[in-house]
Structures are given as structure tokens and as C-alpha cells.
What we know:
By secondary structure, the chain is mainly α. The protein folds into two domains: 1-42, no CATH class; 45-207, no CATH class. Helices cover 52% and strands 5% of the residues. It has ten helices and two strands. The chain has a two-stranded parallel sheet. Helix 6 runs parallel beside helix 10.
Amino acid sequence: MSTPAGIERAKKLELASSNQADAMISSLVYEASLVFTPLNHGRLFTVLRHPIERAVSLFYYTQDMVWRRGNVKDLMDITIEEYFKGGMGENNWMTRFLANAKTKVLTDDDLNVAKEVLRRKCLVGLLSEKGESMSRFFRYFGWDNNVHGEEEQDCIDKKVDYAWPQKHRHEDVEEGTEVYDLIVNMNTFDLQLFEYAKVLFREQAHLF
């Protein structure tokens, strides 16, 4: 579900009606929606991270993977300032994918589309509220009914508390620094979208 070809294959295999998947993970929101049918609806949920934190983390993760794999050598020694000055950093990733505007110059209309997708279609979680977000997902989708015994609960607690896949440590970028301002300028729409997501997160509390 992470590539158009994979999504097309899932559609041909009628994955949505197969009862073989409790959840599907994809950043291709519009393409992935084609897997579902009027008789087999999808329900969208996500965990959102502050755009600045996400952009910084992605830089260090990418550089770490480049170093380990020994490819794209020009990224091995690049600084985070050089990375964003060179236009290689994230550029309103959330807005682009939710508004299906991956390559165009974004406008306020695209931001409003992204907000509407979150408001009308999505159960919103926040990484800063990881425990509450996961609790909502489990209750909303009925996954808590499938948790039996101490071992399964311990697994969930570990994922919520610390054992996230590909978790790595890196330096924080301080507000007011040159690189912080660079990232802000490249993600103005995502910052507005994230503030709206926090509002939705508070409003959706009444569902639980």
C-alpha cells in the first residue's frame, strides 16, 4: 500500500472485502481510497507530529541510513543547514498529500482541502499525545476487544512508551536559529495544518 503499483494489486485482489487486514498503512491517501468500495468502507486515522520536529528527524534518519548503506555520498557529510538551504528538506509534506497536490505551488485553497480531509475523514492522533491517541484508536476500531492477557498488554505498553520502530536519537533544532527559520519558511502550510489538527484532537475527545 506504499506504492501505486501495490495499491493497484490490492484493489485487484479485493483486499478491502477479504477480511485479511485490520489496518492498511499508506501515505498515498487518494490512491489508497480506490481499494475500498461502497460496501467496504475505509476509516482514516493518523498520528501527526509537529512539522519542525518531523523535518529535523527525517534529515537525521536519512543521513543515518545513507551512512549505513554507503550510497548518495554527497549527503554523508552535509549539515542540516546545508540540507535545507539546498531545498532538499521537507516542504509542506502533510498538506501536499492530504490535498493531493504533491508537485504544485501550494495555495490557501490546498490548505483548506487538507483541513477538510482531516475534519471529515480522519480520526486524529498526536505524537505528543501518544498514549491517548493509541487508546482512542483501540477503542474506536474495537481493537481493545482483541487484547487478552498480560503479554499482549505489555507489548502495547512498550510500543506506547518507548519501543517505536526505527527510533533514533538526534540533536534538537532550537527555535530562533537560522535552520529553524529555514524549516519554518518551507513548511508554513504544514504548521497551520498542525495547529488545526490539535483543535480537532481536542474536539474529537467527545467521541470517547
